[in-house]
């Protein structure tokens, strides 16, 4: 069988990098999107991964922009081939209490974290259906399940992502395409580094595992879901949160 192609949006972020690593180790041809290659230092990022033995491709794309995603899909398919696996990771926070939140911070989080799932997935789902195989994983958050102080925008987007997953799973299952969500808890990345120290320490105190998650913990769940053998797991949400939030 030819190598499967996996596209990871925001694959050069904290969680994304580890997803790229694990998929590359699993034999996938991995490509990531990044918004601003220079500012994000994506060349150096790719070179460091190459040193480790991972040849990760990258394309510039603002996933909040539908037309940019259409252009990105053409570029990816021309250079790397049909996309079999899509992992929607790209996400941002703009935390503020709602009574202090401006409209830009509401809109940018909904655009980057939720509208992107439509903008990117829409480009690849037709091909997956036609080929009778596809794996889509949406990275949500425990805060989409529970709500969080300062995150009406982020919690709404992340909860919306799983609604998107469930509806698309029903549409896609007859065509051999699975769509699942992974909901990380608090993971050691620059995003959690930005939480005020006092608040972060209080959050860690509530995690039964007694620590933040590691990006590897999340990537493991993604690698499991995208496997060819995982075809009957569809429309599911896998929480990876150290028992911070348990539900049935
Ligand atoms: N839990 C409990 N109390 C919290 C809290 C939290 N998560 N966040 C804020 N508070 C409390 C503060 O401790 C403070 O209480 P006191 O007045 O008693 O000291 C009160 O709310 C007001 O907080 P601030 O003084 O910080 O007010 P602010 O307007 O300057 O900022 C805030 C508010 C933006 C919510 C800021 O506190 C903050 O950034 N909190 C962290 C929010 C958070 O948890 N974000 C998650 C980011 S990581 C992520 O999103 C990844 C993921 O998927 C899990």
UniProtKB/TrEMBL annotation:
Keyword check for Oxidoreductase: yes
Enzyme Commission number(s) from the entry: 1.1.1.36
Gene Ontology cellular-component annotations: cytoplasm
InterPro entries: Acetoacetyl-CoA_reductase, KR_dom, NAD(P)-bd_dom_sf, Sc_DH/Rdtase_CS, SDR, SDR_fam
CDD domains with a match to the protein in the record: BKR_SDR_c
Superkingdom, natural source: Bacteria
Gene Ontology MF term list: acetoacetyl-CoA reductase activity
GO biological process: monocarboxylic acid metabolic process; poly-hydroxybutyrate biosynthetic process
Any Pfam family the entry gives: adh_short
Ranges of residues in domain Ketoreductase: 4-185
Keywords: Oxidoreductase
Enzyme class: oxidoreductase
Transmembrane segments: none
PANTHER family from the UniProt entry: 3-OXOACYL-(ACYL-CARRIER-PROTEIN) REDUCTASE (PTHR42879), 3-OXOACYL-[ACYL-CARRIER-PROTEIN] REDUCTASE FABG (PTHR42879:SF2)
Record-stated family: Belongs to the short-chain dehydrogenases/reductases (SDR) family.
NCBIfam families linked: AcAcCoA_reduct, PRK12824.1, PRK12826.1-2
Protein name in the entry: Acetoacetyl-CoA reductase
Native species: Sediminicurvatus halobius
Origin organism lineage: Bacteria, Pseudomonadati, Pseudomonadota, Gammaproteobacteria, Chromatiales
